[in-house]
Amino acid sequence: MEKAQHILEEYFGFPSFRPGQQAVIEYVTSQKNALAIMPTGGGKSLCYQIPGLALEGTAIVVSPLISLMKDQVDALSSLGIPATYINSTLSSEEFQERMQQLRAGRYKFVYAAPERFESPTFIESIKSINLSLIAFDEAHCISQWGHDFRPSYRSIVPTLAKLPNLPVIVALTATATDEVNYDIRRLLNIEDEHVINTGFARDNLSFHIVKGSSKRDFVLDYLKERPAESGIIYTSTRKQTDTVHQLLESKGYAAAKYHAGLSEQDRKQAQNAFIQDEKTIIVATNAFGMGIDKSNVRYVIHYALPMNIESYYQEAGRAGRDGEPSDCILLFSGQDIQLQKFLIEQSLMEEDKKTKEYKKLQAMVNYCHTHSCLQTYILHYFNDYSAVDDCGKCSNCLNSDNREDMTREAQMVLSCIKRMDERFGAGLTAKVLKGSRDKKVKDFQFDQLSTYGLMSQYTEKELTNFIHFLVAENILSTGDDRYPILKLTKQAKEVLQGRKQVWVQTGFARSTAAADYHE
Ligand code: ADP
């Protein structure tokens, strides 16, 4: 381990390891396959770079993104470490030249896209040399339960099995749910005890949900306060990227834009302008960002709802990699849910996979409705229960002084759902509580229920918001169903029996009633 410490100081100029790094390095250098789960910015690269330097031979780093490879190789080269990348951007002369150098054992690190493993020349070459390790960066891409599954990543597995000189393997990711974690371990042959999970908390990030005002106005006001700071604004469609970008330019901001509809050259230019601080803001779809190591991003704003917590945390996590306080803001509008549902529906996924995606989307929506600490909500989603305290700085924690007891109202809602036989969604339940003369209410004779019109002082919109809140707090569940049917959970029974209280932020129903945005 002294050797690792020496490399850390001599090559990289850092005095000490970040949490988890040392353990991963220790496993890998003693030939134990390992999985490192660390938050974005946690320092995953060193987990394979230090063993790669400590061990003899060449390290192969499998990486899904071409832009990432070049940056990593440049960084290593600037430290005097022989490194290269092999991917589809090379000319055939460059490819031949690099393969020759590789076979001569000249490189300490070779970055390769997963598709490379389908090339016999590449495989024959790596078979013929001394390998130090194989690293799988962004290892969640190997699992079909991951949010960014790449079949080419998974098809490496049988090829690996045939390598006579298979070295130790290290997998790295920032997002691994239990299923993904299990898949990575199974496919790459990693023992349970060699998984290092540092927890997901990012103490320097403050999470915020913004509801009830115009998104456009919010962004303009927010930027006015910090004109010189660097930030990312994620949008959900290319069209929205263009619109927001245009708006910012018209107000005189130096903003770049990035989406998959632009030429590769334009994308590269936009990315570089942002990384080199020529443009302070980048407006982008989720095509932007994987592997981007820009340390001074002070805020990440999601202009629309992301499809799941995994993507959200990864994208939001691009803020504050330098450890300085940074904001992660999500602008919520109920209409955005429809777009995400549409995207799932028209995708080519198998039915059971679609059901899973709906469930993940529901967890994302719940995040927007919860009144609990947002950081804690995310950590619990990833089964990380290590933090004892709430973060104290997310929009919910900041609001927690202004709470009122709505246990009685919750009981009314719950008993209404019970009387409706737990077979309907939030919309119809709200109508019954409101006392609506809607045809469907009459058809089902819900106007005969004792709960009919019981909460008529609220609007239907307020009632639906309150129901969504109860779902977010896990007092109601919507099951795995596409058309969310409300069911009472164990916690609901406690509320009905008066053993559990329901606290909400003051004025909550009224303020979120305006949650429908105008663009
Ligand atoms: P990620 O986990 O997102 O891949 P990186 O490996 O890119 O993170 O590291 C993020 C930043 O943290 C980089 O700028 C890296 O140089 C820095 N870093 C990594 N390890 C250490 C350390 N032990 N001490 C100080 N800085 C570190």
TrEMBL record:
Keywords assigned: ATP-binding, DNA damage, DNA recombination, DNA repair, DNA-binding, Helicase, Hydrolase, Isomerase, Metal-binding, Nucleotide-binding, Zinc
Span of domain Helicase C-terminal: 215-362
Which of the seven top EC classes does this enzyme belong to?
A: isomerase
Q: Catalytic activity, per the record?
A: Couples ATP hydrolysis with the unwinding of duplex DNA by translocating in the 3'-5' direction
Q: Which cofactor does it need?
A: Mg(2+); Zn(2+)
Record keywords: ATP-binding included? Answer: yes
As recorded in UniProt, its EC number(s) are 5.6.2.4
Question: In which domain of life is the source organism classified?
Answer: Bacteria
Molecular function as annotated in GO: DNA helicase activity; hydrolase activity
Where is the Helicase ATP-binding domain positioned along the sequence?
25-194
Instruction: State the family named in the UniProt similarity comment for this chain.
Output: Belongs to the helicase family. RecQ subfamily.
What is the protein name stated in its UniProt record?
DNA helicase RecQ
Q: Identify the gene encoding this protein.
A: recQ
